Automatic annotation (TrEMBL):
TM regions (residue ranges): 6-26, 38-62, 74-94, 101-124, 136-160
InterPro entries cross-referenced by the UniProt entry: ECF_trnsprt_substrate-spec
Name assigned to this protein: Niacin transporter
Extent of the signal sequence: none
Organism of this sequence: Tepidibacter thalassicus DSM 15285
Keyword Transmembrane helix tagged: yes
A Pfam cross-reference name: ECF_trnsprt
GO MF, any single term: transmembrane transporter activity
Keywords assigned by UniProt, alphabetized: Membrane, Transmembrane, Transmembrane helix
Length: 176
């Protein structure tokens, strides 16, 4: 089971690099539709918090190195923390504490944005990134990302339920 989860984790990291590239190719903005968030949230929900954390941490770093998205500074550290928190919290809530998918998503999105806020605050106040305003970053991320948030809340529960249903009659189940 561990090998299967490692392979699926790698698959979700790859999706987290490829999907944003596809969105940018057809001129759909990443900050609006949040395409990198979807594979990370799926990884947390389907593989658990530990794998969600790793996928969330690695995906923006690998994407930044390979594609330049997100930019190394100042966005990469912010997204790395935000997505790592998404993966961890969604996986813990759904798999360990048996929250439903939608509640797990919403709480993980709130926690991830709090993590991003903290990183922006630290970067602005301790490392001199004077142009970063934590409140404006948070507000802008939420308002700009409303279409992506809606997509996540609508489609991720459908995908999780579909994947889990298709695997229940089979030889194995991903979660738990």
């Amino acid at each position: 089971m561990k090998t299967k989860k490692i392979i699926l984790g790698g698959f979700f990291v790859a999706l987290g690099v490829i999907i944003p590239m596809l969105f940018h190719m057809v001129k759909l903005g990443g900050p609006i539709f949040l395409p990198m968030h979807i594979p990370v949230l799926l990884a947390g929900l389907l593989l658990g918090g530990e794998y969600g954390l790793i996928v969330g941490f690695l995906t923006p770093i690998i994407s930044s190195v390979l594609t330049g998205m997100p930019p190394m500074m100042p966005v990469l550290p912010i997204m790395t923390v935000e997505l790592a928190v998404y993966g961890l919290i969604s996986g813990l809530l759904f798999n360990k504490f048996n929250f439903n998918v939608i509640i797990s998503l919403i709480i993980s999105m709130i926690c991830g944005r709090i993590g991003a806020f903290i990183v922006v605050y630290i970067m602005a106040n301790m490392f001199g990134f004077a142009k970063l305003n934590p409140v404006m970053w948070l507000k802008g991320g939420i308002i700009t990302g409303i279409p992506g948030i809606a997509i996540q809340i609508i489609f991720i529960p459908l995908l999780v339920n579909l994947i889990n249903k298709s695997l229940k009659g089979g030889a194995y189940e991903i979660t738990n």
